[in-house]
Amino acid sequence: MSLFSALEKLHRQDRFQQEDFHTEIVAQVLRNCPTLTIEWLKAIGATTMPNPRVVGISTQEEFARLADHATDSKPDIAIRLSEGGETELILIESKLGSKQGATQLQRYAEHLTAKQLEKTALVFITRDYEDPGDAVRADPRFRLARWFEFYRHLCAHVNGDGLTKELKLFMEENQMSLGNQFRPVDLVALENFLGVRALMDETLQGEVTLEAKKVLGDVSSIKGSFKQLRDNERYTIQSGFGNWDFFCLIGYWFPNRNPDDSVWVGIVLTSNPKSKHRKQVISAFRDLSRTEREWKADNLDDERAWSELSHGRPLHSFLSEEDQVRAIKNHFISLLQRVSAFKKKNPRLPWSASGAEEESE
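The structure assignment produced for this chain is given below.
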């Protein structure tokens, strides 16, 4: 785990702003490594200045609103390059998970125009692809970039700076280090993916789905599992209760930070922080985690975070079984029976089905 991921865990989830956190780290690395800064900006076409004498980098710099703007503007990073009496201004907006504001990029472009400099650029850098919109895309000063491309420049930069090394690890742990080649292991994974998916489907359908319906009242179909895999790094069926007060998810969780971690197989009970039954649900979760130590609790003390109890095993622990599919089915059914006992012990929780097909988070 990187130092920055460890520091992230010390923050309350509801107050932690990962994009701002990442921005400050990147900005400091760029300050420490002017060569890296210029190489990257040239690579994405944001500057043509050959050897700037001054490289100034600020974060969250406030630009007072222009006459036709509703708000002030605060791009994530502003870079000023100076050489021979010439100055270039480059504004950078970063997105990791959130989406751009409706007029955000357009406002930044208009601020650049208002500066009346000979050379300006607007960089929109994202972890996942996001369309900047036709108006901004047509602006010749606009550059669309991706964090995995920046990561490659970071790796190519020869530097003994410990901060740079930690930033690389943090980006790897947060899906910002996409390669540009399929490795042999990737080809094996792709060639076997449909077979693996069929095995996961078999373990979740049939007896397991029937048991889940008996215990929980309703459960999502296997069709929604692929969306869960894409959006949440898990392959699950699920049930929601009350007015989306809490959920039960059954299936497979994939390592989304450390690729050396194993796929995890089990059940997760998760509590909605906005639920009016929150205290009641958390109290029941606490009681279960105290009486059955196998349940692992997470975020029960954070009133604004999604809280959960999890019970399961790493997938590799089933490899010694002669019939692994049967062993995993029995594992799920056994866990559902534990949930059934939890349900009987806590009849006042809002167990009525919310609608199994809805997203849980």
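Interim note for the steering committee: The mean pLDDT is 90. The two ends are 25 Å apart (CA to CA).
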